[in-house]
Amino acid sequence: MADKKMMKVKLVRSMHGRVKGHKECVLGLGLRRMHQVVEVEDTPSTRGMVNKVYYMVQIVEEA
To answer: Does position 1 have pLDDT exceeding 60, yes or no?
Structure first.
């Protein structure tokens, strides 16, 4: 079975005062705190979540 493609995502802007749907996307990615880095699977759904909150997150590394 092939290895899953992963990407690291970092929260660089606060969730305070954001639209509810954007907060939910950030939480869905597993980000809880500022400057936290999480590794998520690179799928169309996670890409969509990152694209929706592009102004709050940063892709640190793609493997």
So the answer is: no
